[in-house]
Amino acid sequence: MEDDAPVIYGLEFQVHVIDFDDENNIINKTVLLHQAGEIWHISASPADRGVLATCYSQAADSKVVTCAAVWRMPAELEPGSQESPEDAASPAHALELLCLLEPAARGSTACVAWEPAGDGKRVVSLADSHILLWDLEGSSSQATLASSASLEGKGQLKFTTGRWSPHHNCSQVATANDTAIRGWDTRTMSQIYCIESAHGQLVRDLDFNPNKQYYLASCGDDCKVKFWDTRNVAEPVKTLEEHSHWVWNVRYNHSHDQLVLTGSSDSRVILSNMVSISSEPFGHLVDDDDLSDQEERRLEEKSQEPPQDSVIATYEEHEDSVYAVDWSSADPWLFASLSYDGRLVINRVPRALKYHILL
Amino acid sequence: MAAAAAAPGPGSRPGDSPEGPEAEAPERRRKAHGMLKLYYGLSEGEAAGRPSGPDPLDPTDLNGAHFDPEVYLDKLRRECPLAQLMDSETDMVRQIRALDSDMQTLVYENYNKFISATDTIRKMKNDFRKMEDEMDRLATNMAVITDFSARISATLQDRHERITKLAGVHALLRKLQFLFELPSRLTKCVELGAYGQAVRYQGRARAVLQQYQHLPSFRAIQDDCQVITARLAQQLRQRFREGGSGAPEQAECVELLLALGEPAEELCEEFLAHARGRLEEELRSLEAELGPSPPAPDVLEFTDHGGSGFVGGLCQVAAAYQELFAAQGPAGAEKLAAFARELGSRYFALVERRLAQEQGSGDNSLLVRALDRFHRRLRAPGALLAAAGLAEAATEIVERVARERLGHHLQGLQAAFLGSLTDVRQALAAPRIAGKEGPGLAELLANVASSILSHIKASLASVHLFTAKEVSFSNKPYFRGEFCSQGVRESLIVGFIRSMCQTAQSFCDSPGEKGGATPPALLLLLSRLCLDYETATISYILTLTDEQFLVQDQSPVTPVSTLCAEARETARRLLTHYVKVQGLVISQMLRKSVETRDWLSTLEPRNVRAVMKRVVEDTTAIDVQVGLLYEEGVRKAQSSDSSKRTFSVYSSSRQQGRYAPSYTPSAPMDTNLLSNIQKLFSERIDVFSPVEFNKVSVLTGIIKISLKTLLECVRLRTFGRFGLQQVQVDCHFLQLYLWRFVADEELVHLLLDEVVASAALRCPDPVPMEPSVVEVICERG
After folding, report:
1. Choosing among A11, A56, A226, A243, which should be mutated to test the B contact, i.e. which has the most B CBs within 10 A?
2. How far is CA A264 from CA A238, A332, B453, in A?
3. What are B554-592's pLDDT values in tens digits?
4. Looking at this predicted complex, what is its ipTM?
5. For A90-110, how does the pLDDT look when each residue is reduced to its tens digit (9 = 90+)?
6. Between 20 and 30 A from B104 (CA), which of A20, B70, B345, B747?
7. CB proximity B712 to A under 8 Å
8. Angstrom distance (rounded) from CA B530 to CA B507
9. For the whole model, what pTM was predicted?
10. Do the Cβ atoms of B679 and A340 come within 8 Å?
11. Chain A residues in contact with B712 (beta carbon < 8 A)
């Protein structure tokens, strides 16, 4: 089992590909150079694991401009294809630029999001107050602007982050700007819903529940994590207040959506069990037909206990603010977190909980 | 003798009843005595009289009764010598002589007495003889008289019988005359209106007429009487129905009608119908007083009217009814009870409507007096008609009203609380516009606290009226127990304190989380208020309540400690929220200042940025504000010359720690390593942590939030060389002024060091400014 966890730090602007060998508990690191500039956001293509998109800043004319581009990793360095020994001294390979997502005078790009279930051909980028939908052609070597929309309103509106919903045939994108969360329909590029002042302060991150339509998690500078039903945005479905500083990241587990991971600048990572609003509110649901009577009885017993939302664990390995957390796409019980001081921590879901969910 | 002594038995005492053995065998005793006497030749009296001494039967005893001179002489001659005989003889002669002279003397002495006695006896003898003659004559005369008397009786017997008969006839005739005169008398009585008299006559004659109705003459009289009686009854009914007369007259009518033998059932119905008419009249007038538009008379007057009009009437009706129709038995009583119940419920409905109008008013004393009257008036009919349950219903109404009053007071208290909060808001808003200091926070707090306390006291006082001794319903179980404990203590006082806490907490949860809705000073003030409540006021209020309302009820009440804990929790939340709001204000300022500036192309710093001065000013203002209400709190120990020391430590740590000569500034990994090592030894900082109730803790919280924001914002930017230097200058400036506000100045160092380090990391060309220059700039700024 291997894990993709590209990370950046330092002045040289590298992309690190880290292999985690679960069986041997060994970590391998491959360093790729990102020569264009300082990376602020990174996202891997869902279809081709050699392709990734970054948002990076460039200093030009004593001004910092953030751009976005799609890159390909050198073929021999693709994770899993090599077992090269740790060789930090060897000159790093450079990423191969596929295309720039560079609109003319669109300002700084804050975020790039791939279409989650697609073939890696559609990308949304958020630049200042514009939301841009790109079609990638010729194995991502050419990007054409398919459609776009802009935020209109008073003052300088700026998108901070965005997320592509895996539901509804991938036709919805949620974005955040300041304290508001907006939903967009990519077919018409029009706004479908808007949660004004979703958080007391800036919204930092969003994530869609992968198994339950309409459910959206958000986090922000008010130290809260909120769960929304996008059909009724007047009130959050649930609010968590476990962190003591800004929450930078929130992530649903890809297969067991009661597991929610949050990272915060109080240097903690918190794994929560949100059973009551998950797609499996009464434990793991097995088709009733397959169950023997005994199992059914056990299931009933289990379902009689009211589901309890709880914090499963608080991980305090980081010494500084945690800026990124994510689940492994290969192993649903594995997750990584990254903090300011460059420390990457890989953790597992506690075994007891794992069995509780599975059985 | 021995037998005689033994006869009564050894155990019996002289006092014992002689009936015992003597009564059972007196014959035998006497027989035995007789035999003994026979043997000794003695009389009974002498045997008893001389129990001992010389033998009484001795014939030689000179003084004995059985003295025999021959035996004595014989004995003397035989036994005594001559000389002794001679002596005896002389002795005897001397004795005889002496006796003779004695006898002579006695005879002489008593001679006259003997003479007169003899005379008397003789005279008596004569008199008796005369008396005997008289008596004989009397006897003969009496016989003659008896004879005569018998003869006279015999002759008068005949006449006597005749006279008796005549007397009987006379009486009968008088009765007959009365009967014959009856119709005219009745008519006269009816004409004169003396119905009572007429009914009495009729009553007297009715039985006789009934008995002799088979005789034609009597029948005629009876018919006449019946006609007249019918007319009389009709007139009575007429009067009864007219109803103009009062209840007592009506009662009289009914009484007469009853005496006339009218059917009680019907009368009773009619009586009640009439009473209903009158009482409904009363109710209508009461309802008219209720009427929507005219200014209703005050509630006391209303209940007075109701009490005297309706309740009085009901009492009269009930009393009259019970007197008149006592014979009706339980069915009649039930009818009356139903009657009273129905009208009573209508009356209660009216009273309740009136009382409902009173709910809005603040005057409790009037209401209590009115309720008192109401309740008092209903006690009489309540006692009279226990079955109708009027008293219970009245008590229920009073209880309901009391409960509603409690609710009303609770609302009043809440409104007062909100009102005083509004006042505070205005007071807080006003001076800022005027640009000068208004009343201080402490003063405002005192105002709010005292106004709430006085409102609570006023409410308690006015609610206390319900339990005053002179109020008739105050000794009902509800008012003695539940009202005091559950009503006043729990729902009013505890309820108010709870709602106060909730209101205060709602300021924390207000949707306007940006702090625009609630002025921070208000949060601070409320927090202090709640804390004061926790420390003193709650227990004071509850003690006051318990004293005023001697709570006898054993039902569980909320303990003081629970309330205090709630108040403390509220105070804590408010203060934490205050810290968040104030921290947010300063953070926003810092964030904007970092985000909007172009750090790459900034010029070499000449002075501290204005926003930092503003931050320090605001922090000082907050410090002053919090200082007005909260105590200083504890700081970590500092040396005397804090300012200087901090400065040197700060600059040296930066100089030798971060940018020590051995590490080039362009070696970010090393710097990272250093900072990590340093962090290993410092404690983790909880930014939004709960605060304690003192100034230092509050300020520490605010500064922590602000500096952490600054740190995070700096990390998101890229700095040019001069940008970094500007950050250096700003941080040093903050360091100079902020250390004194916080509990642990290390905290400020740590965070500011972190900011500068982060800025350095975010700088492609990190050339720090000379510490001395930084100092100069800061001192100038």
Report:
1. A11
2. 19, 21, 45
3. 667 777 888 888 888 888 888 888 888 888 888 888 888
4. 0.79
5. 456 777 888 887 765 557 788
6. B70
7. yes
8. 13
9. 0.65
10. no
11. 246, 265, 321
